[in-house]
């Protein structure tokens, strides 16, 4: 594992600055932010190269001064003292923030220069909180404060926020457009006696969110950017996002390694790099690694199936990507285990609707890792809207949050409406044909994974319905489990009528009626699904009533990171347990025992069920 700090101590601004002795136009600081997500203890390796965000120059002992209250909020994270005081601009300057805001609760971040020793007014401050942006400049000739309400950004969630000051005029830009300007400030910046630069995050509504989740890049210039320069920079950042590049000018993994669809004798591994690369894959049951495979054809997305493996066996592996210029980046040594023998005990975790919160995805990944399941089932909406033109939702969100656990535990997903076009879903998965739906055997259980986006195929006579009917009829497994994204049964507040406004709710989707009849007629034990961002477990159901002997249990697990939803104001006859909150589930199976648990975001047990055969 290597680290490439973009801004380090006293030397960083020289290494990152665009400096010209002829013009004196300097980029004082150029910072990239990306979450440093790893697992704990011996599993704490980040795959490949990365750029570190700015760090204060005093790490062992430091004082930060009083915090800035921003829109009446206290900061939840602060980074200070990462620029030498002598380099801070006193005349014309510009500052930018590149923001990705994909949560529905108010959060914010700012970059500013203010006094360290006294809680005085900032010399300048650029920030965003909720749907408002602010640009504040204080000079010896006056003070300019510009605020503006904003709507959705580029691709709904991205904002290139730029503040400029040229000595006479203060201007605020968003995504290349001038939002506001003022002539109230003029002359030199009024720096305090002990100035310090600070980046602060305000995430009181999103407990696990960090600055690097909202701010993806920032720059400080010692000159006022012209509109054309701002647009050029905006296009540069847009191109970075379109390609899924996480770090500029750094050879790195921007997806994976990603384990999915294991068997007793094989493991599928996928990864992506920011540039075309070939690869070497080494693996084995001991270190040093004894087997080596090569992929000689260069590509961005690469995948391989390791074959000839032994059942229920731990393996080590490492992916090394090699670019055209010979540079290399390595995943470091990672681990996985193949599928267990048919009569062995096994466990799996369930997560759904990871969507827009990599900070929640990662937290749940940490908790699932501590359980050491054999595999993880994903119930769809891997992304919120990761269609063909929203590739960034895979690189910046899903793989950012899930890679630490997904590089060690294989995933078995189903597609949700967030990836209903299957464009990137199919490119990032190697699943049995036709990929959108498939089945697998694990231990003494058969799993049937459906694509519920294709609703017509789930009706009688539809190809998925007939495929499932045939598969269930042929199944000899003790446990039969079905998974898909959409809800056949749900007590949520408004998917089947707004129950807070008196509208009646059928509390089920009639398009699943044929499937429900099939589940009940052929002995399906449990059906897992997501879509609604909450948790619900039903009683065993059959023929429209509770049947604890022959009924099917329906479990909705949609709390992986999407915007949380709520339930009807009155109880549903079929519902055994509901919970509004982020969560994951775990199942342990051995012979005739099916043990189920649900845990919240803090790792607390919130539900338990046991089935016996």
UniProtKB/TrEMBL annotation:
<dbReference type="InterPro" id="IPR008963">
    <property type="entry name" value="Purple_acid_Pase-like_N"/>
</dbReference>
<dbReference type="GO" id="GO:0046872">
    <property type="term" value="F:metal ion binding"/>
</dbReference>
<dbReference type="GO" id="GO:0005975">
    <property type="term" value="P:carbohydrate metabolic process"/>
</dbReference>
<dbReference type="GO" id="GO:0003993">
    <property type="term" value="F:acid phosphatase activity"/>
</dbReference>
<keyword id="KW-0732">Signal</keyword>
<dbReference type="InterPro" id="IPR029052">
    <property type="entry name" value="Metallo-depent_PP-like"/>
</dbReference>
<keyword id="KW-1015">Disulfide bond</keyword>
<dbReference type="InterPro" id="IPR039331">
    <property type="entry name" value="PAPs-like"/>
</dbReference>
<dbReference type="GO" id="GO:0004553">
    <property type="term" value="F:hydrolase activity, hydrolyzing O-glycosyl compounds"/>
</dbReference>
<dbReference type="InterPro" id="IPR006558">
    <property type="entry name" value="LamG-like"/>
</dbReference>
<dbReference type="InterPro" id="IPR004843">
    <property type="entry name" value="Calcineurin-like_PHP"/>
</dbReference>
<feature type="domain" description="LamG-like jellyroll fold">
    <location>
        <begin position="91"/>
        <end position="228"/>
    </location>
</feature>
<protein>
    <recommendedName>
        <fullName>LamG-like jellyroll fold domain-containing protein</fullName>
    </recommendedName>
</protein>
<dbReference type="Pfam" id="PF13385">
    <property type="entry name" value="Laminin_G_3"/>
</dbReference>
<dbReference type="Pfam" id="PF00149">
    <property type="entry name" value="Metallophos"/>
</dbReference>
<dbReference type="InterPro" id="IPR013320">
    <property type="entry name" value="ConA-like_dom_sf"/>
</dbReference>
């Amino acid at each position: 594992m290597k680290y490439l700090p973009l801004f380090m101590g006293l030397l960083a601004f020289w290494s990152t600055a665009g400096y010209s002795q002829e013009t004196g136009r300097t980029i004082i600081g150029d910072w990239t932010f990306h979450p440093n997500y790893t697992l704990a203890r011996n599993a704490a390796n980040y795959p490949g190269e990365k750029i570190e965000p700015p760090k204060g120059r005093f790490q062992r002992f430091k004082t930060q001064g009083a915090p800035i209250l921003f829109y009446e909020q206290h900061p939840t994270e602060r980074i200070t003292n990462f620029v030498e005081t002598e380099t801070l601009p006193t005349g014309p300057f510009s500052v930018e923030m590149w923001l990705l805001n994909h949560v529905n609760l108010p959060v914010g971040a700012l970059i500013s220069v203010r006094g360290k020793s006294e809680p005085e007014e900032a010399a300048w401050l650029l920030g965003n909180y909720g749907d408002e942006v602010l640009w504040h400049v204080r000079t010896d000739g006056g003070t300019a404060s510009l605020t503006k309400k904003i709507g959705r950004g580029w691709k709904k969630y991205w904002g290139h926020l730029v503040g400029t000051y040229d000595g006479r005029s203060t201007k605020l830009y968003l995504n290349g457009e001038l939002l506001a300007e003022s002539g109230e400030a003029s002359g030199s910046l009024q720096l305090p006696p002990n100035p310090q630069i600070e980046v602060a995050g305000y995430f009181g509504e999103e407990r696990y969110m960090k600055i690097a989740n909202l701010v993806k890049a920032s720059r400080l210039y010692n000159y006022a950017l012209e509109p054309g320069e701002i647009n050029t920079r905006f296009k540069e950042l847009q191109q970075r996002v379109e390609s899924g590049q996480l770090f500029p000018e750094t050879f790195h993994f921007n997806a994976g390694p990603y384990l999915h669809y294991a068997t007793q004798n094989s493991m599928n591994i996928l990864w992506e790099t920011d540039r075309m690369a070939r690869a070497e894959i080494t693996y084995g049951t001991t270190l040093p690694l004894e087997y080596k495979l090569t992929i000689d054809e260069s590509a961005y997305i690469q995948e391989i199936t390791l074959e000839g493996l032994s059942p229920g066996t731990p393996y080590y592996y490492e992916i090394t990507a090699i670019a055209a210029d010979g540079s290399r980046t390595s995943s470091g040594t990672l681990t996985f285990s193949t599928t267990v023998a048919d009569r062995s005990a096994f466990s799996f975790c369930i997560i759904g609707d990871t969507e827009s919160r990599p900070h929640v995805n990662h937290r749940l990944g940490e908790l699932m890792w501590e359980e050491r399941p054999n595999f993880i089932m994903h119930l769809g909406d891997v992304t919120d809207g990761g269609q063909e033109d929203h590739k960034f939702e895979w690189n910046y969100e899903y793989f950012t949050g899930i890679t630490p656990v997904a590089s060690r535990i294989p995933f078995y997903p189903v597609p949700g409406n967030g990836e209903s076009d299957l464009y990137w879903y199919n490119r990032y998965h190697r699943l049995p044909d036709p990929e959108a739906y498939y089945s697998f055997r694990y231990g003494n259980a058969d799993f049937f994974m459906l694509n519920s986006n294709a609703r017509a195929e789930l009706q009688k006579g539809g190809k998925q319905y007939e495929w499932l009917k045939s598969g269930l009829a042929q199944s000899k497994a003790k446990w039969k489990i079905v998974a898909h994204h959409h809800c056949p049964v749900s007590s949520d507040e408004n998917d089947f009528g707004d129950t807070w406004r008196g509208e009646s709710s059928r509390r089920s989707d009639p398009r699943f009626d044929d499937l429900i009849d099939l589940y009940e007629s052929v002995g399906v034990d449990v059906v897992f699904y997501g879509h609604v961002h909450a948790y619900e477990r039903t009683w065993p159901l059959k023929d429209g009533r509770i049947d604890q002997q022959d009924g099917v249990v329906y479990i909705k697990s949609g709390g992986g990171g999407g915007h949380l939803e709520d339930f009807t104001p009155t109880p549903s006859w079929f519902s055994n347990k509901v919970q509004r909150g982020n969560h994951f589930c775990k199942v342990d199976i051995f012979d005739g025992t099916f043990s189920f648990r649900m845990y919240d975001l803090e790792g607390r047990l919130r539900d338990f069920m046991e089935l016996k055969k």
